Amino acid sequence: MIRGLHDGIEMKELFGSPVNTNMSLDDGLSSLRYIEALKDAIGDGPPYCSGVVTPSDFQLYYATDGKDARRIDLSKATDDDLQELAQACTPATFGRNNEDVLDESYRKAGKLDTSDFAANFFPLSCEDIVCVLREHLLEGHDTNRSIKTELYKLNIYGPGSFFKAHKDTPRAENMFGSLVVVYPTPHEGGALILRHRGKKWEFDSGKILATQNEPRLSYIAFYADVEHEVTTVTSGYRITLTYDLYFTDPDPAEETRGPSIIRRPISKDPRESEFRNVLERSLDDPDFMPDGGTLGFGLKYQYPVKDGMNKILDVPINSVSRALRCLRGSDAMVMNVAKELSLKASLHILYAYDGDDSVVMMEDFLPLSGWPLDRDVSGHLIGIGGSLTNEKSLLRNGRLELRRPSWETYSTIKWVTDMTKFNGFQDPYVAYGDSGEGTLGLLYGNMVLIVHVGPYRRRQWPSRKKGT
């Protein structure tokens, strides 16, 4: 439970019923308490979900080099069967700088492409997997959001095999994650280690499957920007199917294609209800940002922003519209709740440069190479639609950070969660002075989620009672 800043008053007392109407709190302190409660309500859930399922069968069919197809039942395969499968595989590559690289000092494993094998397992036809994906990985997303799975590879990790820490290379802009399904072949080692935002999780399929009373599949699904590795297999064979997870636009034809599409979550994440409740109570309190203002949320996941190339200058064209199409996790939760409460929510770009500590907020990326900047960079940004914030920049290790104002200071942005490094960037620019001579500089920035809160007397949303 979060404690207040005055006299040990707890947030439960502030938000619960009844509220102590005799509390004498200034506006700044009251706002800060609500902001701390909003931050706590967002929480920090793990960026993955996992479980075990029982498929209809464990049959795998494979053929390579023009040989006749072979069948193996992976629920009771012998060592000879598994060695024969391993010999049919080719060395597994991995993505680096948009290229497939073979380097067995970094990844040692075997693989079969989808053209060389077939399996009678379809993840989204498995109700247990669908439920877990809906309730734990798609948290906060629009209830009409659709996804599809696409089988990518079969991998086999024998004794001595491993895969060092890496992030998956998205194969399309709408790819948001991966699903790894592990067959019940006995193995030790080969645990999948996940790391994200300074935290670490372990998914040890060998141990999980060894505890089952019957042959089952274990699975884990995680977001694409989560770093992961496979530890060294010490015995046995770890055999996996990897599926890419994609967001899809609604397509009426897909309604007849069976269970390949997830339509609606069974239930919303409990954090979403808590966050909505705290935000509603905040908006209902006349001491919370009585004159209106801006709430800022650092994005907890990395998003694509490249939206084509400038044909003349051969530089990327970046746009927040791409990121908006694939918000996930708590980022999507904040956006959805804000819109439900009729608050204006959007992604914005914060800019600062190495010649000043001013921070300018803009509604989209600046096409840097297409704009002649003068030496007054902040003034230039404001002149083309940016707004000067009361934040001060701190440029550190090539990233934009903020010097946090004291809680009683009225800042243009009241931060619920701090900016993260995942959507930070730096872009070069040339500033021209009166002499016409150009000077090379750097603009630093970060993409953040901004929620505009109106003055208390004008706050309204569909569920708000009349007369409040």
UniProtKB/TrEMBL annotation:
Signal peptide: none
PROSITE patterns cross-referenced by the UniProt entry: FE2OG_OXY (PS51471)
Gene3D superfamilies: q2cbj1_9rhob like domain
A GO molecular-function annotation: oxidoreductase activity
Homology family: Belongs to the iron/ascorbate-dependent oxidoreductase family.
Keywords: Iron, Metal-binding, Oxidoreductase
Protein known as: Fe2OG dioxygenase domain-containing protein
Residue intervals of the Fe2OG dioxygenase domain: 148-247
Entry superkingdom: Eukaryota
